[in-house]
Amino acid sequence: MRRGPGARIRRQWPVLAAAVAAGLTFVISGVIRGTYPFGDGPRSTNDLGQQFVPMYAHYRDMLTGQGVGDLFFNWSSGFGVPFLGDFMAYVGSTLSWIVLLFPRDHIDLALFLVDVFAIGIAAGAMTAYLRRLRPGPAWIAAVAGISYGACGWAIDDAAYMSVWLNGLIAFPIICLLCEWILSRRSAVSLLVSPLVIALLWTSHFYTVYMATIGAAIVVAARILAYDASVSWRHRLTGAVRCIIAVGLGIGLAAPLLLPTFRIVQAARPSPDVAFRPIGAIDFLARLLPGSEGVGATPGLAVGTVLLLLVVSFPFNRAVPGRERIVWTVTVALTMLSMQVDFTHDVWHGFDTPNGSQYRQAFVVAGLLVIVGWMSAASGLRTALAVAAPVGVVLVLYVVTWNVRTTTTTTRVVVPLLIVISVAAWLASRRPDRFRGLAVAILVGAVIAEVSVSSAAIDAQRSKILSAKAPWGEQHTAIRGLVESASDWPMHRAAPGADQTVNDPMLIGGEGPQYYSSTIPDRVSQQLLDLGFGYSSYGRATIDPQNPVIDVAFAIRHRVVVGDDEVPKLERYDSAPLVTVRPAKPFLSRDPGPFGVQETALGADVYTIPKVLGEKDPEVSVSDRRGGLTIAPTAGAVLPLETRLHATCAPGSEVWFAAPIYVGDVLVDGHHWVTNLDPKAKSPGIYSGAPMLRVGTAGADGKVEVQLRLSARTKLPSSPIGCLHRDRLEAAATQLGASKVSAVTVGGHSIHVRLQPGEAAAVVIAVVRIDGWRCSVDGKASRNPSARGGLLAVAVPAGASDVSCAYRPVGARMGLAVGAIALLGLMLVAAALLVLRRRAAGRQGW
């Protein structure tokens, strides 16, 4: 008799209960901490505030037609950058549609709900997988799902990197799909699975790649653990079916994956990092709930109850011996693989990350939950299966008492949950009236432990990582100013960087600021060459607010927030976004960023004077190897002040460019500005200072730049530039007179109508990167050239139309691979249909 929908729903109550409870624990932890949206405490830690919230805001603008750009290109940030890589790396979650349910000023709430739902879905998916894997008490399956969904990695590492939670979701779902294929050799399982795999891989390819490896480990363990009654032919054909389904799924995702891989390859590289495994005690300490070690240690905790069940597994004789051996070895080897160089590289796609070097920890947490479930589902029937794990966990508890990742919460909840767990086991052996109460108490204790552990992790992490405030009055005020100054696509309106490094996406407008792991290296290097500052190895840019850059890149308005915290809108005389310039390019001979700016502008506006150090017995200055080295002499009192001397034209602006100088600079003769903070890690690699306006040359033309330093430092050989405003104004006027009739900007294209004239070059104020193709008067498209890094198109005399479009490199190959995968799926469907008809024919005969 077929079961109705009500029966099916009742059968799935553990899945729904686990999903709701896991999400609820995350909510409760926020209530305990008093963080947004339950209090004044900021929740947007680190990248959540700096990257995810702004990118979700931009994504919402893209979907609602309120922004500039589309899935391929983002006109708002970095003077124009690709968006597909950011979408796949930060936004491309199956839950990102949630942003459409809220107004724009509630993006922070949308991200909070993305985390809540992702944790809940992961918990529900794991519960569903466990119940398909082996029959057992439904409430234990729900507890196991909760323990996985809110595991240490999910709260400590992924909750503020929201898109990582897609890996947490993917692992049990891929395991569930392969279990479906292994247990039921049906056409439906083999045809549906690739579609789900494709969806998962486009949600977040990075962590889903790790989840796929984890699922392969699970499938291998399942095949090896089958009893002798299952033939090896049956096992291997099942494995091949899983491989085909996963392979086709990844192929179907190729139209997005391959362009993303090419974008990642072209992104700003970070310095090579050598993986250094941590000590065994520090590693094992993260098995305990409430432990916190974001970025440095793996979040393996799955709660005290599941940890006890995991340790009971090797001692539980109710589990067949073959399974105990296979799964115990599997878990041990997988944990060991996190500490071995080669397997560490495999886990991370042969690219060791600079932070959070145990990003695959959620897979191990999943394996622990699976093993714990198999032990619980088989029943704990002997005292050894209960006493042994209690003893082992207590030893671990004592040994890790003073480990830096252990929190007060850890010290309280572990012994308490051990007592409750043992009491529940004893009660389960008593009459039925005690069992229900014991189960209720144990489930309540697990939920409470997960909630307080999550709060403890967040509290400890907040001492290390800073957080951004949610949308408030300041955001609204700045956005209002930007919207009032909107002149796109003629000019840009820059919102500044008062709230985040990604304010152009968060607030709106079209500014130079941009922070992303997928920033094209060419864009990053071009901005640095122009005098931009940077952090995170050049992946985040800092606007120098330089008038030459403003003219060259069409910044007409900028929001500036002063010491009074009141945002103000400044207006500049700027060239338009598209200019027509002489056919022969101007090439500056000035050194450093001053010359790069002039080449981008197409005019000579700086004078670069010879710089001399001050003669001081406490300071030695040497001009060797292409730079000025300034060093305090022995016995000098630090910090000490010294001066650089130069001569500029009277009235010219003095700019100082020294990206790796750690110290202060006196600006306008009355206030000190930090050029680069002493806390900056490895100046020149981790961070660099933007060029800085330090004053105006007096009537005599003599310039003194006063420095305050605490250690030996090196400056460029020409760190000072004298800007002639009259020349800059003339250049801006000339560029503003360009023969451009109209400019139309699409999502990833730009169309320019010209007044016919002599041969020239159309220059678009966008950094030229691979992927742009341009055509003149409808002729064949070709790769554009670059002028000072800007996109340039040579046009013959009489030309009237220029069109350029950006297409991610690898898009065609991705479409081809996707088409092949789709064809392969159709062929598999046809083959299965033929085999099914043949089998039916034989049965009829």
Report what the structure shows.
- The chain is α+β, with helices and mostly antiparallel strands and 845 residues long.
- The protein has four domains: 92-462, no CATH class; 473-583, no CATH class; 606-723, Jelly Rolls (Sandwich), CATH 2.60.120; 730-806, Immunoglobulin-like, CATH 2.60.40.
- The chain is built from 27 helices and 29 strands.
- The protein has a five-stranded antiparallel beta sheet, with no helix packed on it. A four-stranded antiparallel beta sheet has the order 10-25-28-27. Strands 11-22-16-19 form a four-stranded antiparallel beta sheet.
- Helix 2 crosses helix 6.
- The chain starts with a helix and ends with a helix.
Concise structural overview:
By secondary structure, the chain is an alpha+beta fold. It contains 27 helices and 29 strands.
Question: How does the helix and strand content classify structurally?
Answer: alpha+beta
Note the quaternary state here: single chain
> Using DSSP, what is the number of strands?
29
| Major sheet: arrangement of strands | 12-15-20-17-18
How many alpha or pi helices?
27
Q: How helix-rich are the residues, as a percent range? A: 40-55%
Number of domains: 4
How much β-strand is present in the residues?
Answer: 15-25%
Keywords: Membrane, Transmembrane, Transmembrane helix
Pfam family, one: YfhO
Organism: Kribbella pratensis
Protein name: Membrane protein YfhO
